[in-house]
């Protein structure tokens, strides 16, 4: 799931740190990133299925300093509010899923 063409990561969103970071010699960042990429792709497909545009909100794969995979959600505040409302509508009001 790579979005709507080249440069999809920066289409309409400013994702700080997406192209920067400190790399430590000997740390396997690729394994963690691949795992995060699979999870981010799955979430992006779910977002698309729920009617969201990846230019407005998307999951982004990354790694932490130890090489562990990390998935970050990046989006416009209004769209993230809409996503939060959708998720809240699927809970029982006590923190559990319906």
Secondary structure topology:
Layout: H1 29-49, E1 57-63, E2 69-75, H2 77-88
Antiparallel strand pairs: 1-2
**Low-pLDDT ranges:** 1-6, 8-19
Shape: elongated
Task: Spell the H/E element sequence.
Answer: HEEH
- The radius of gyration over CA amounts to 15 Å
Spatial strand arrangement across the major sheet: 1-2
Number of helices: 2
Question: Kindly state the mean pLDDT as a whole number?
Answer: 81
Number of E-type strands: 2
Q: How far is the N terminus from the C terminus?
A: 28 Å
Instruction: Give the helix/strand class.
Output: alpha+beta
* Biggest sheet architecture: 2 strands, antiparallel
Strand content: 5-15%
**Helix proportion of residues, in percent?**
25-40%
